[in-house]
Amino acid sequence: MNPDIPLQLLGGITAREFLRDYWQKKPLLIRQALPDFESPISADELAGLSLEEEVEARLVIEHGERPWELRRGPFGEDDFKNLPERDWTLLVQAVDQFVPDVAELLQHFRFLPSWRIDDVMISFATPGGGVGPHFDNYDVFLLQGQGQRRWKIGQMCDADSPLLAHADLRILANFEQTDEWVLEPGDMLYLPPRLAHYGIAEDDCMTYSVGFRAPSAAEVLTHFTDFLGQFLPDEERYSDAGTAPASDPHQIQRDSLDRLKALLAEHMGDERLLMTWFGQFMTEPRYPELVAGTELSEEELLGSLEDGAVLVRNPSARLAWSEVGEDLVLFASGQSRLLSASLRELLKLICAAEALHIDNLGQWLADDEGRNLLLELVKQGSLEFADE
Ligand code: SIN
Ligand code: CO
């Protein structure tokens, strides 16, 4: 994707300009980001999804005296029959994993790393419905799918921003409005992390949230050090050969801290392990149970491909690749695989994974390492046969 081509999706600016001026910094309202956008899923279909066991769904109902009641799915048909006429929102997480037409939307966001994308959440709200003024720690693109929603934005928040006493939802006690717009289908609002926002449905409305993920510093440190720990032998310890006599045996001296810092720096600075951990972490599936895999022999794989079968990415799997020294590494749903540099084009093809078939795989099926990789990815569940 050429980052210097103006994009309708970004209101006529280029991806480069968007990343420079707005991404993670300030909001951007884009009228008709996707002109004539029609929601590929109806409110009834969304409600249908929220009945499924493996789907994460919430209902937020605004009652006068007890605002923003949260109910968690999966729901039953009766949950919807007994809802009031207005003032409620149904939110369904990761719809892209269940509805291919919704996953398609992510193609528009290829100017950002795919491993930064979390999911496409879709909300359906009746007039007056909303989840209250709040902030998220993630970037989000809010695409209006149906009906109209009034979006209000406010101040930048942080962990110290006062919240209402609410058992389930993080609702801001103070909302300092700076702007407001009514979004029509196809309009989109980009919000950087921590910006207060408040969406209220004007009529029956559907909003798509393309949400991003970024590990917290605490997650990076705890997870990476856990990962590193597995590779360190028990006998490798804090050591102080050559230490000077202590003037007071009870004092921890500065040189002890320096030794500790050197020990940390030696391991924390291991780029190979850091890249391996990061790729694994960022490709962890949201629902690992949906990346189940299947037993398959090499003959069966080749036979199916020769018969015209098509391999696609399991919509619940995440894929990314990287360079590690002279080698390449493929990250697939939390696992990593070191591969020779000659497989670069295959890795790119697999990660883009529109459709893998005998024609575009061709030469790779004759390559032992390439063929084996494909087989392992199907067995692991990151790739699967498209059912056609
Ligand atoms: C919604 O779609 O109702 C809520 C999205 C958000 O504010 O994060
Ligand atoms: Co939000």
UniProtKB/TrEMBL annotation:
Taxonomic superkingdom: Bacteria
Keyword Chloroplast attributed: no
Cofactor(s) needed for function: Fe(2+)
Ranges annotated as spanning the membrane: none
Keyword Secreted annotated: no
PROSITE patterns noted in UniProt: JMJC
GO molecular function: 2-oxoglutarate-dependent dioxygenase activity; metal ion binding
Assigned keywords, A-Z: Dioxygenase, Iron, Metal-binding, Oxidoreductase
InterPro entries: JmjC_dom (IPR003347), NO66-like (IPR039994), ROXA-like_wH (IPR046799)
Domain JmjC: 101-229
PANTHER family membership: MINA53 MYC INDUCED NUCLEAR ANTIGEN (PTHR13096), RIBOSOMAL OXYGENASE 1 (PTHR13096:SF8)
Protein's name in the database: Cupin domain-containing protein
